[in-house]
Amino acid sequence: MGVFTVENVWVKNILRDVTLNVEDKVTSIVGPNGSGKTTLLRVMAGLIKPDKGAVKRPGKIGGSWQNPYFSFTKPTVLEELSETVGSKSEALEILRSMGLENLAGKSPFTLSMGQARLISIILAVAWKPEAVILDEPTNGLSCGWKARVWRLLRNMNTTIIIASHDVEFAFTISDKIVVLNEGIVVGEGSPRDVLEKGYLRTLGLPEPENWRGGL
Ligand SMILES: Nc1ncnc2c1ncn2[C@@H]1O[C@H](COP(=O)(O)OP(=O)(O)O)[C@@H](O)[C@H]1O
Ligand SMILES: [Mg+2]
User: Fold this and answer.
1) Closest residue (by CA) to atom 25 of ligand 1?
2) Across the chain, how many H-helices and E-strands are there?
3) Which of 13, 14, 180 to mutate to test the pocket of ligand 1 (most atoms within 8 A of CB)?
4) 62 pLDDT exceeds 90?
5) Over 80: is that where the pLDDT of 130 sits?
6) Spatial contact of 126 and 94, defined as CB atoms under 8 Å apart
7) Structural domains of the chain ordered from first start
8) Banded pLDDT at 209 (limits 50, 70, 90)
9) Quick check: helix, strand or coil at residue 49?
């Protein structure tokens, strides 16, 4: 499991003095559109250098980004996954276990947004990194697929950091929630703490309806 520390990070006016420790298995960053979630993930992944502050991160980080097609370079889904895991048979096994073997021969660039997102998440995880960073992992996914992604992620022994405006998903999968507004961390804690303290309500954000207070 990888550990991240973000200390007094500034990126223009997009992130303002953000300090954050990630030690839990699953941490989700939630907040309104434009609050800086994607920028914070990119700083944590090392894709953006902060103007001020410091970030410590694990050496091997997998990512699935808001545009999942950015993850792809190969002519077929099977080749894409084979390169990541090192063998065709293992790649096929992973696709079968997710019920996605029908996508094996397809070009990843012709997949629907939901399918592309699933494959980009599977690629990030299958690489066996110390940490996985997932930007809006449930965008374009049906309820059934969200549940399968939930199980895939919870069953992994890897640090997972998610940015999401899907509060149902974030609250049910996470050990810790970080609330970001206008580039500032305005609250953090267990999902229960964050709800009880009303951090989402204060920002006028919806609260999860079907969350029963546990994973
Ligand atoms: N490269 C950039 N240059 C300038 N402004 C940016 C850049 N990237 C994002 N922004 C702005 O920073 C803010 C935060 O964006 P973002 O991190 O994508 O938020 P979120 O993921 O929470 O929607 C937005 O106002 C966005 O317009
Ligand atoms: Mg975003």
Assistant:
1) 34
2) 8, 9
3) 14
4) yes
5) yes
6) yes
7) 1-60+132-137+154-215 (3.40.50.300), 67-128 (no CATH)
8) confident
9) coil
Tokens 């992992």 — which residue? Answer: 137
Asked if pLDDT for residue 215 goes beyond 70, the answer is no
Counting ligand 1 atoms within 8 A of each CB, the residue from 39, 67, 167 with the most, and so the one to mutate, is 39
User: The sheet that has 4-11: what strands, in order across it?
Assistant: 15-22, 4-11, 52-56
Cα-to-centroid distance, 33 and ligand 2 (Å): 7
**Model confidence at 214: pLDDT above 70:** no
pLDDT of 191 over the 90 cut: yes
Q: What angle do CA 141, 191, 205 make, to 5 degrees?
A: 65
Tokens representing 76 are 């077929």
The pLDDT of residue 2 is 85
24: how many CB neighbours lie within 10 A of its CB? Answer: 16
Instruction: Tell how far the Cα of 76 is from the centroid of ligand 1, in angstroms.
Output: 32
207-213-30-160 Cα dihedral, nearest 10 degrees: -160
pLDDT tier at 96 (50, 70, 90 boundaries)? very high
What pLDDT does 67 receive?
A: 94
